[in-house]
Specification:
Blueprint (H helix, E strand, L loop, with lengths): L3 H13 L3 H12 L3 H4 L4 E3 L11 H9 L3 E8 L3 E6 L5 E2 L5 E2 L10 E7 L2 E3 L4 E2 L5 H8 L9 E5 L5 E2 L13 E3 L4 E3 L4 E2 L1
Length: 191
């Protein structure tokens, strides 16, 4: 298996070559999933996609249109995340990431977390950008098996592997969503 650095470089190179038309098609594909069934509660997390990532603007709007309160991450010191509601104007932080105003809302009532990644494994492994923001918050959040939110990683179709480079501290995902696929780990559902 390749190293994390090698896998990240491959994904970032592939993402840089995507055209606007491809990204628009992928965004339409993401909207075709049954989001109401995936998030039965009122509170979900998502993120504002950075350049080259699977687009989330229309997805976030769609989630709101079906009655969901969408929380977005806010990068804090020590690679921690706080959360704010996706409403109104977003502010771009020093890393170029758009963030809402922090509201202090807890993830205790969230039913779904949509999590970014560069690659995802069918075994539940996720390869992020390497700063550990999501691993830290997921470690503190109840798993879906113990009443916490379903953890879905969002990647492009060509970023889905059997497994991705990972370490023992890397948090496992409950499922993977791509523009054309939904895979819930442990054979809960696959299509």
């Amino acid at each position: 298996m390749e190293s994390k650095q090698q896998a990240r470089a491959i994904s970032l190179s592939s993402r840089a070559s995507r055209t606007v038309a491809q990204l628009q098609q992928d965004e339409r594909g993401l909207l075709a999933h049954d989001w109401a069934a995936l998030c039965p509660g009122d509170l979900v997390t998502c993120y504002v996609a950075m350049a080259g990532e699977p687009p989330t603007d229309l997805l976030r709007e769609h989630l709101q249109s079906i009655g969901k309160t969408v929380l977005l991450p806010i990068m804090k010191p020590n690679n921690e995340l706080a959360w704010g509601v996706d409403q109104g104007e977003l502010v771009t932080n020093s890393y170029g990431v758009a963030e809402p105003i922090e509201t202090g809302i807890s993830l205790d009532n969230a039913t779904l977390m949509i999590i970014p990644a560069l690659r995802a494994g069918r075994d539940g492994t996720r390869l992020g950008r390497g700063a550990g923001y999501y691993d830290r918050i997921l470690e503190k959040t109840k798993s879906s098996k113990t009443g916490g939110p379903l953890r879905l990683v969002l990647v492009f179709d060509d970023e889905l592997d059997n497994s991705v480079p990972h370490e023992s501290h890397d948090q496992k995902m409950d499922g993977i969503i791509t523009p054309t696929k939904l895979l819930l780990i442990k054979n809960k559902i696959a299509n």
